[in-house]
Design brief:
It contains eight helices and seven strands. It is an alpha/beta fold and 191 residues long. Helix 2 links the parallel strand 1 and strand 2.
Amino acid sequence: NLIDLGRVINYFGTEVMTRNVMQSSRSLLPHRKMYNILNLAYDVPIWGWYYSSNQNCNYFAWATANMCGQCALKSDCPPDADVPDFEAWHAGRHNMKRQGASPVAETAVLFSGFSRDWNRGVCFAHEALDLAQELERLHVSYEFIGDMSVNAKQLAKYKVLFVGAAQCVDDAEVAAIKAFAKRGGRVYLRP
């Protein structure tokens, strides 16, 4: 469980779809953003490991990790003259600096590990990821937050909170969500 491991590991890495990342492009960005709940909660870097013999797929995977402020690990794939040298751009002045960069999202989507593990009434993970894909389609900037980030300090950054089918939240989370709404935050709940 990545959420539990976040308490003891100093960096996280996950594999980016290895066969053809462009075929999974609609779901790839929400999945990469979901891993950032660990960065948000524990201030640890997130790595995206990608490898393909197709340089365009490598470029797309790198760009996705880069957009999420994640570090990209890649296999040794010979450069293709027809594909821009994204690795040179990576270190250039036009790319964002990951250290010190902070997201500007005003919308949070709760990805509740407890609800994922214990809510037998609905497939919570799919609901959260489907919502994220729709937010992407609508060009709404959002972040995933985990149970460990449902507190006044973290919620103060947002104007909107989607709770979805998170039916397994504890009393402290409920109190933080209610306080967020009382301060003017908009909360969307799913029964």
